[in-house]
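Summary of Year 1 activities. Much of the first year was spent building the evaluation harness for sequence design. The harness presents a backbone, in tokenized form, and records the residue chosen at every position. We chose the following record to illustrate the format because it has been used consistently in internal testing since the harness was completed.
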């Protein structure tokens, strides 16, 4: 199969630092254009919207949507209508209804739609999953904490309600946990902290239920100081598993099994190429459903103002 011509839609921090380098290294893709209303590279055709790309730009086979969450549904629908395969950054949509509609649209047109949960491609995922496959899980602790000022500098959209607030980050932890743990889980309760000057939560504590597990909790924080703290701790009848540093490092009973820098997005694009090649889609919306559960069951508290 010849290289798939792809356009990146939205050229912010993650597109620049993760998507473009992964595409440039991939044998299966050729970056043909950028669609953005902001700063853009000088070495590629640039368009302000998809209509301009499809009307006047180079022919593309697929698009990678790296725009703010609220814009993804409409752009994905437009790209599918134009006959393009679509990769969705996380979260893939604002609601489950949106992602289901896109899934149906892609299926009707025979196109590939990929909800790219990049944390599921972390180096330690497969080994951690194998270690837990036949274990009795006693307790789980999911921690996902970072400083939003570092990851989304000067980005006002991240504080709009459609962005999901701290869950824009925490959903990565949920996607990782759902890929590693051997049974499905559901949010039973949540406590969300809303700064008095923001319309989204910047911290969350979740109570989670999973069959056979005595205690399962999660803590997300966007106002974390220092190095990121992103870890899944699982106590089993065989001992303790720790998958930390966003899935880069794995230890079991204190013995280090894996410590490898991430190349998540390289694996994301390999998966996307495989889906297009086979005519399939991968649209697991489980983490988004868990976020919806958290909002539906939330106890909300107002906290001091948050300034970026």
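For this record, the design step produced the sequence shown next.
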């Amino acid at each position: 199969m010849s290289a798939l011509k792809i356009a990146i839609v939205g050229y912010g921090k993650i597109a620049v630092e993760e998507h473009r380098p992964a595409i440039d290294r991939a044998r299966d893709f050729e970056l043909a254009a950028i669609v953005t209303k902001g700063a853009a590279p000088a070495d590629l055709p640039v368009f302000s919207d998809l209509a301009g790309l499809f009307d006047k730009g180079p022919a593309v086979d697929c698009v990678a949507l790296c725009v703010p969450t609220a814009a993804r549904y409409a752009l994905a629908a437009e790209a599918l209508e134009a006959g393009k395969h679509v990769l969705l950054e996380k979260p893939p949509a604002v609601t489950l209804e949106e992602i289901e509609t896109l899934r149906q649209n892609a299926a009707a047109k025979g196109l590939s739609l990929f909800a790219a949960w990049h944390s599921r491609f972390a180096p330690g995922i497969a080994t951690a999953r194998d270690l837990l496959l036949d274990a009795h899980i006693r307790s789980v602790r999911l921690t996902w904490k970072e400083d939003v000022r570092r990851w989304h500098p000067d980005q006002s959209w991240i504080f709009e309600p459609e962005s999901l607030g701290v869950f824009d980050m925490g959903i990565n932890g949920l996607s990782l946990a759902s890929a590693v743990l051997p049974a499905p889980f559901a949010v039973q309760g949540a406590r969300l902290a809303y700064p008095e000057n923001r319309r989204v939560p910047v911290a969350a504590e979740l109570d989670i239920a999973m069959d056979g597990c005595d205690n399962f909790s999660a803590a997300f924080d966007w106002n974390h100081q220092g190095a990121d703290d992103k870890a899944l701790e699982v106590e089993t009848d065989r001992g303790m598993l720790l998958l930390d540093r966003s899935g880069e490092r794995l230890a079991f009973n204190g013995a280090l099994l894996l410590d490898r820098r991430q190349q998540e997005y390289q694996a994301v694009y390999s998966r996307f190429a495989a889906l297009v090649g086979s005519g399939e889609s991968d649209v697991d919306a489980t983490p988004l459903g868990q976020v919806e559960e958290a909002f539906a069951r939330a106890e909300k508290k107002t906290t001091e103002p948050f300034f970026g």
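The longest strand covers residues 186-195. Quantitative recovery figures across the full test set are reported in Table 2.
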